[in-house]
Amino acid sequence: MFRNDRCTIKRPTKTKVKGEVIYLPETVIYSNVPCHLSVKALSPVNQSESTAKVLLDYVLFIDTNNSLNVTINKNDIIEVTQGVSGQTIKLRAGESQKYPLTIQTHCEVDKVA
After folding, report:
1. Total structural domains in the chain?
2. What is the pLDDT of residue 67?
3. CA-to-CA distance for 52 and 60, rounded, in angstroms?
């Protein structure tokens, strides 16, 4: 599998002050990590309205034999820059599965509230 994409992994941080939870800016945990982002259409195009809807499945692959010893937690923010197009996609990590040669993380597009 080609690893021509690069990602930056950020972790949401929070602290408690006088009983209140305060959310701080994300902390960069890893940067410039070689990876591969797989994007798969889960459904055919639904053209019932004026705009088409396509459900996409994002899976991020990271080699486990790199020197960074990467760990991805659920809800980490992952910014993937695709090698071919240079496009950057901001994702939120879901469940990760660690295998002998790779970490596979299912992601969704990060929606800003």
Report:
1. 1
2. 67
3. 25
